[in-house]
Specification:
Elements: H1 2-26, H2 38-61, H3 66-80, H4 83-95, H5 99-126
Helix pairs in contact: 1-3, 2-3, 2-4, 4-5
Length: about 130
């Protein structure tokens, strides 16, 4: 039952995070720039801010229930943006003074992730 409650916490948080992302993507923010994906940029920056904020809040200030932590971080922010988790992982490498791994993870994630997009586009065009 505990696992189901955790799953439900993630699902509820995810529903709100996905809804928030959608609302930002259809907001007037989407029309501000023609050639720059401002809504996605905004979502990634805001998500990164909040995962850093919650990280400190939940580790240094108070200990929330596991379900609340999962709902907000894995659920809401996970659906809102995975970029925030990526940023936090890099932060943790830097905090542990593992700069080579932080840089390698950053570089490989962006470059190989982009190659993945290109490969997906190429494959989809073959159909």
């Amino acid at each position: 039952m505990e696992s189901f409650t955790k799953l439900l916490s993630v699902a509820v948080g995810g529903a709100f995070g996905a809804s928030a992302r959608y609302l930002i993507n259809i907001s007037p923010l989407a029309d501000w720039f023609e050639k720059f994906p401002f809504p996605t940029f905004f979502i990634n920056v805001v998500g990164s801010f909040f995962i850093g904020f919650l990280f400190v809040l939940f580790t240094d200030k108070f200990a929330p229930s596991e379900n609340l932590r999962l709902a907000l971080t894995v659920g809401f922010l996970g659906a809102f943006t995975t970029f925030s988790t990526f940023e936090l992982e890099i932060f943790e490498f830097v905090r542990e003074r593992n700069l080579a791994t932080a840089f390698l993870y950053l570089f490989l994630s962006v470059s190989i992730g982009f190659v993945g997009v290109l490969a997906g586009v190429w494959l989809a065009k073959k159909f």
